[in-house]
TrEMBL record:
This is Phosphoribulokinase/uridine kinase domain-containing protein. It comes from Edhazardia aedis (strain USNM 41457). Signal peptide: none annotated. Gene3D superfamilies: P-loop containing nucleotide triphosphate hydrolases. GO terms for molecular function: ATP binding; kinase activity. InterPro entries: P-loop_NTPase, PRK/URK. Residues 58-182 form the Phosphoribulokinase/uridine kinase domain.
Length: 329
């Protein structure tokens, strides 16, 4: 059995966390208060108005590929750890099913909801909710397309749980994917009854759902660079996969309006100004002061690729109680 607090940080570039001056805090809080519907009000409402150390809080991040979910999740994780708040990070990318080498995987769609091991995902979440002593977690290699695990680890019994993935809302939504009707090798087939009632119940969780939206052109540029640099893929293959699988799935399922959303940020983690507003509202709730990051971390490596004119898709698909665009303040 291996003891862990959620993630290995050895391969991650850790952002420096900075505490804002009183004046900077006031300016940031004023921006939050002046939004059409207070971001702080939404955060407080989702989390129960007042932080209680004996409660369990979930920050659920869903969004298009290359919108910055992983970067934001890791930054938040380190922020909570630095401020002595017990936190666990659940990355759904680690729960892909292994490819069957005996089958033709040419048209296998990793962006199909059925590509994830939802049974394993839901078990981890339930065990966190129920304060089980151990958790069964998995790893996944994007190089070999093989899943390893489950591995049993000690449950850190966290106060804050961060869940990130393209379909992370599916865990808690009233309606969830009707998985038996999905086929990773035939994503274009017509699916009847795509969604069914969610049988999972998590009454002890207080949940905040953030959607990160990105335009197709921005997502493609970032995705190509990420796949080549971090996953050892050929650019041409990345383009084909994006156009054939990634973006159709994004429009059809990731941005599906059936998923309830509390806050949405256009252009995702590349929208630095509004990301600071979000992080500021979250930290104000948990630690009573506004804290932000000094840099963009891993996702910042692809900031150049994101500098493409906005097509408006991101705003169109950001249906939520609060929408944060990257217009000049």
């Amino acid at each position: 059995m291996t003891e862990t607090k959620g993630i290995s940080t050895s391969s991650r570039k850790k952002n420096k966390i900075i505490e804002l001056t009183t004046m900077e805090q006031k300016m940031l809080n004023d921006k939050i208060k002046n939004s059409d519907k207070s971001l702080q009000e939404i955060v407080d409402h989702c989390f129960g108005m007042q932080f209680e150390n004996n409660k369990k809080y979930v920050i659920c991040l869903q969004g298009a590929s290359s919108s910055g979910k992983s970067t934001l999740a890791h930054n938040l994780y380190h922020l909570f750890q630095e401020n002595k708040i017990n936190c666990f990070l659940l990355e759904l990318d680690k729960y892909y099913k292994s490819l069957d080498p005996q089958k033709d995987n040419t048209n296998y769609d990793f962006d199909n909801p059925a590509s994830l091991d939802w049974k394993a995902i839901n078990k981890v979440v339930k065990d966190l909710h129920d304060d089980q002593n151990t958790l069964s977690v998995q790893e996944y290699s994007f190089i070999t397309a093989i899943s390893s695990g489950p591995v049993t680890i000690l449950n850190p019994k966290p106060t804050v749980i961060i869940i990130e993935g393209i379909y992370s809302f599916n865990i808690f939504n009233k309606k969830v994917f009707n998985l038996p009707n999905f086929d990773c090798r035939n994503s274009i087939k017509k699916i009847e009854n795509e969604f069914v009632d969610n049988s999972n119940k998590f009454p002890n969780f207080r949940i905040l759902r953030l959607k990160l939206c990105i335009c197709q052109s921005k997502g493609l540029k970032v995705r190509i660079s990420r796949d080549v640099l971090l996953r050892g893929r050929v650019a041409e293959n990345s383009i084909v996969q994006f156009n054939k699988f990634v973006w159709p799935a994004t429009k059809k399922w990731v941005y599906n309006k059936i998923f309830e959303t509390d806050v949405a940020i256009a252009h995702g983690n590349f929208n630095e100004k509004k990301m600071k507003l979000f992080v500021g509202a979250v930290t104000k709730f948990f630690i009573g002061k506004t804290v932000c990051f000094s840099g963009m971390g891993l996702q910042g490596d692809f900031k150049k690729e994101s500098r493409i004119k906005c097509s408006g898709e991101c705003v169109k698909n950001c249906n939520s109680s609060v929408l944060l665009t990257d217009d000049d303040d």
